[in-house]
Design brief:
The protein has 305 residues and is of the alpha+beta class. It has two domains: 228 residues, Sandwich (Jelly Rolls); 58 residues, no CATH class. The chain has eight helices and twelve strands. The N terminus is likely disordered.
Length: 305
Amino acid sequence: MHAGTAALIDMDWSTFDPLHTQGLRHTLTDHPLLQPDQLVALGKRFQGSSHLFTFNNTAGADANFDDVARLYPNRRSVTDTLQGINEAKAWMLLRHVQADPTYRALVDFVLDSVKSQVEEKDPGMYYRAGWIFIASPHTVTPFHIDRNHGMLLQIHGTKKVYVWDAEDLDVCSEQARECFHSRHELDKVKWDESFRERAHVFEVSPGMGVYIPITCPHMVETGDDPSITISLTYSTEATRRNAMEHVLNDLLRSKGLKPPRVGSHPLLDRLNYFGAAAVIAMHGQGSHPPACPSLAHRTAYAVAD
């Protein structure tokens, strides 16, 4: 970190590694668009759309993100949840906020500020997205993986962020990543309490945050106060290659083959990439593959899928 800097996001860029988690600081805690009244207004605009995702806080770390909203429903309205988040016992996500022109400008404002540093080591930033999390005290974000790099920025309240290395196959297997990239299913991403001792743990308060690389497993616990967090995510040429290689490995595995781990044979990975590109071009972004439209098209912004 660089004390005294006015940078929107401040990391030790000299040690930045796109594949390894790292703490950061930021200067967005007082941004007008991230204050409760504006988030209530955004929630109202998103009412009835796929941009809202919510569940009650009886869900634990072991809940499957694919089913958590159904199994642990939050029966409060958007307005009641956001205005009464301290007592709501709920977790709410405003998804793909870049669909709103005002918030798209915020996403660009932040990511443009770090694009040059990121692309020195991880070129080709695209598929930008913004995700705003509002959670009651003592609420858990279940154990899961994501298909993009992300910068998690704490705005209000405190939380404990657990992140595991992508190469820790005891925590998340290659098959789990293949299934996730190919079908966006989390069935094979399973929580175990013993994982805690293997995690990188970040205790974040306003002005702090965490860089979380693609498919690094993570789990979050809020503190004694309501929490507001924004995550800015993006893909790069490297994440696209990685995802496509996993997609093809999943296809090969479904045919009874046992492909080697992505990254263990660079030449084979390169062939897999071209193979996956051909399959994706043939199938489009329909059922299989890919689950993620970013593999079929290098669009500037993510879509609400």
